[in-house]
Amino acid sequence: MAGPSSTVQCDSYKMDLKGTTVNFGVSYTEHVVLEKVNKSGSVQGKWKLINFEQIIVYPQSLNFAMDQVDHHDMGHGMWMDVRSVVAGNTIRTQVIKSKVILAVVGNRIRYVSTNVWCGTISGNQATFKWHKFSSHFCREQSRRQ
Question: What is the pTM of this model?
Fold first, then answer.
């Protein structure tokens, strides 16, 4: 599956990852923005989630509307409040507030304070999955802006 992409710049420390996958006529777009906690050194270190958005577009109307906010506890002190809106043939999910920290160690990405590895970095290319068993992922040219 193809996934999100962006490029890396080294003047500040931000990763902007986005991309789209299409399966069976359903378009799945994901946008993740991470900011380095300590603005020094290399890509290694802690990264805070500052934006996460998913947009799923179906080829037909979903025949129901929804606008709700949910709290997702990810464990280890990490959480996110997410607004989900369903309208027509589109589901849009956007993080409103979060406390999600990732760590980059040896060019591998993991949830901080865990041994759950969820991505890798190679040069200016990063691959990230929210869950190691997830079929949805961001494959990025990761950009530190």
Answer: 0.76
Domain presence at residue 1: no
Question: Does residue 66 lie in a domain region?
Answer: yes
Secondary structure (DSSP) of 63-118: S--EEEEEEEEEETTEEEEEEEEEETTEEEEEEEEEE-EEEEETTEEEETTS--EE
pLDDT tens-digit readout, 68-124: 999 999 888 889 999 999 999 999 999 999 999 999 888 888 888 888 888 888 777
Whether residue 5 is contained in a domain is answered as: no
Domain count, the chain: 1
User: Is residue 50 a contact partner of residue 16, using CB atoms and an 8 Å limit?
Assistant: no
Of 44, 73, 13, 53, the closest CA to residue 138 belongs to 53
For residue 40, the enclosing domain spans 14-141
Q: Tell me if 2 is assigned to some domain.
A: no
